Amino acid sequence: MANLHKKFTDSQVKDLLERYLKGEIERKYIEQIF
């Protein structure tokens, strides 16, 4: 997964994934970002 998020820091990615897992953001949104 490391090469997927060159635009982001690890902490930003972890934050996004945590919010996704909590159901705060849609999978579509994550896919658009990456």
Q: Quick recap of the structure?
A:
This protein has two helices and no strands.
Walk me through this protein's architecture.
- This protein is mostly helical and 34 residues long.
- It has one domain.
- Helices cover 56% and strands 0% of the residues.
- The protein contains two helices and no strands.
- It is flat and about 25 Å long.
- The N and C termini lie close together (11 Å).
- The model has no long low-confidence stretch (mean pLDDT 80).
Name some characteristics of this structure:
34 residues; mainly alpha; 2 helices; 56% helix; 0% strand; flat
What is the element string, with H for helices and E for strands? HH
Counted beta strands = 0
Computed CA radius of gyration, to the nearest angstrom? 9 Å
Going by helix content, strand content and strand pairing, the class is mainly alpha
Spatial shape: flat
Task: List the topology elements.
Layout: H1 10-21, H2 27-33
